[in-house]
Design goal:
With 380 residues, the protein is mainly α. It has one domain. It has helices at residues 2-18, 20-40, 47-75, 84-108, 119-145, 151-170, 175-178, 199-222, 224-234, 236-241, 246-272, 282-295, 301-321, 325-339, 343-350, 352-363, 373-379, and strands spanning 112-113, 116-117, 184-185, 274-275. Strands 1-2 form a two-stranded antiparallel ribbon. Strands 3-4 form a two-stranded antiparallel ribbon. The radius of gyration is 24 Å and the shape is globular. The protein starts with a helix and ends with a helix. The relative contact order is 0.14.
Amino acid sequence: MADIALKTKINQKSWFKSERGFLIFIAVMLAFPFVLNLITGTGLNEGITKFWQGQFIIFFIMAVFAMSYDLLIGYGGILSFGHAASFGGGAYTFALLMKHWAPNFIKNTPIVIGNTDITMIVVLLIVLLAVFLVSILIGLMFAVTSIRLKGTYFAMLTLALSTALYIIIKSTDLHQWTGADEGLHGVPLPVWLNPTQNRLTVYLISLAFLVLSYFLMKRFVNSPTGHIVIANRENEDRMRMIGYNPVTFRTIVFVFASIFAGLAGALYSIWNMSATPTMMSVVTTVNALIMVIIGGMGTLIGPIFGAAISQVIQQFFYTWFGARWPLVFGLLFIFIVMFVPYGIVGTYRMHAFNLRRLRERLYKPFSRKDESPEEEKTSG
């Protein structure tokens, strides 16, 4: 029992050490709105504090979307140009049900426990369950196409499927339901979930969603199934020879990534109170790919860095360079790919040992070592 307790304590220390940076990030993000409010004095739901909460909400959502794409391309070795289909599918599922189904259900089927009306909570749970199921179906749809195709051919097919879904959403035949080109706007939300009236609540929900998603994805990639997915990325033929079916594990990672992308899309629909065709476009997938490349593939924490950098660039570069900001961003991206080819986190991990040795050498002249017993005797 003592050995088990000691081993558990060592594992806990190792976990805290490995996740120290992310835990600090969580603490900083939790304190940010309140600290900024103390500095500016504008109020938690007003002025610059409210504005930056909105920027961070977008960052949290896109970070989860980028991490889900990292599961595909970084851990699964699957280049898909259709990942935005899951993101947009989750957004449209949430918006469609909240706009066309929820009002009638709330009006005709009130659910009360004691004196508490929980109808809206039940509606949200049902809608999120629908988002979950739709995301699984979209993931399965793309996984089926990977049975016979790989590499460039598979990437082109995912591009075709994503474009087909994008065209369907924009179709004028569905204007009554989806809004066609204009999108679906004015999604009704309860007051406590309305980002305009209660931004701090949405901020905290988005942060909790990012934290939960990160740890669930981390648990997945560190599980035996995750290890098989990584091995499948390295050599499918060898995995097939030892008895594993590569298609099965590609399907698992497709569905798992699609679920998180769909939930991120639903939260993005809450933030915008709308769902637009742009959410399903190839551009959205490419944006996630850029975030993953900037941060580092196969790192999970890297896409969070990539999403943060992308959000900062979009905010400040537009202010500084106006409509020409994508050109400047493109040049910066080329610079990153050339000089930091494995992304920020990936490159750091590759050179972490050398950086540690360099730091030790720099600090060595300033470190004080105790004299050995022999040296003490000699000096005496």
